[in-house]
Amino acid sequence: MRKNGNQTVVVLTALDVEYNAVRAHLTEIRRHVHHAGTQFEVGRLPGGGGEIVLAVTGQGNASAAVLAERAIAEFDPRALLFVGIAGALATDIELGDVVVGTKIYAYHGGLDEADGFYARPRAWEVSHELDQLARLVNRDRQAEGKVHFRAIAAGEVVLNSQTTPLADQLRRNYNDAAAIEMESAGTAQAAHFNRGLPTLTVRGISDRADGNKYLADSKGSQLVAARNAAGFAMDFVAELIGKPAGSQGLDWVVLDAPVDVQWRSDLARGADSGPAALEVHLVPADASRRLEVRRLERLPDELDSLGRTLGLFNGTEKLWSGQTGVGAAVHTTEYETSPAGIAVLRSGQMSGWTPLPRDSMGAVLDPADLVSRIRRLLEILAAIDLTPAPGIVPVIGIQPAIMVTEDSVQRMPRNRASGLGMRNEVRVLPDDSLPGEQFIRHPDEVAEELAARLMAEFRQRRY
């Protein structure tokens, strides 16, 4: 008998970074302890729907199989997901992309003879229902990181080379596998033994299994990959259990008092000259919160890696990174060509800025393009490894705003422009806040609202 109708989904992860990325999407979280000591957390997606059971298995197919079996027996779920990170085997997959497993190979099975190794793999294909639903979710969603529907190889070792016998074995015998990891074969086996429980593997790519794993990890690739995998998985679960996506709206709360905002001109010199830049700041509503200075000391390198990994910096600019009087920052030093940067202040304010598209006639403010740019900045800020404040005030602006035109990027390059902005900056002064987790769970809605506010302010003040 199902304990929660047919609306319970079990989500397993191997690492804490994966677990935390999924947990950030949940609300109404409570603890459930199995009689053998396994710690589960049970929560919901915002807006209702069924329950999501979350647990960390540790690395390896054996432990994943045991805990999958335990979770299935305890919660009798509608479906089982394994969500986490993986190494890429295919060359057309980028760091941060998501691979949804259409087939799981347990590749270590085989016969080793004097004349060579003969593969005897086991394989499990994803159920038609989950595969179709995942593809539908991918078509409908607008998020960073490409999603691939490919086979995944799951074994018992961490592959970090393209020249080892294992790498050669994978190329020869499993050349359709796009990613490699260590748990999905165990969960697939457990699901198979439980009347073919529908199971889906969702993996974010954190390295290329090419000898550079630890370098990629040090640059924050695991965090980005885990967040991307969790984001897609939770969109999938929302569709599976019938949560009305986006129907609840955002929980805006009017501020009792204004907050202190540090704008880009306060954080990096050159903001009042050069090309127009879009800036987004997330300011804690509670002014009493403070970050520790020792945490700020580690942030410049983290912000540098994050900006490069997520494409804020193109890899050719000269960057400045370090601590300022009020926090830590990394930003370009070529103010006249490419203003971009990230900053974190002791107050907890997180800031990001990026140039607007421009041609010889000046910068273009295109509402559709604006939403995409805000969404990218929100993604970058959400990836900073800090606990979200309970309430966050989003602040947005453009500086300088002179020679900025509302137009379409599709018309660029232009030979004429009209309606030019005549102010040095356009700033939307904040008067409300959102729960911190909504910036992670509903980035598209937040981006659309901030874009609408900025466009309204620009249209009102441009002449």
Automatic annotation (TrEMBL):
This is Nucleoside phosphorylase. SUPFAM superfamilies: Purine and uridine phosphorylases (SSF53167). It comes from Kibdelosporangium banguiense. Residues 8-237 form the Nucleoside phosphorylase domain. Pfam families: PNP_UDP_1.
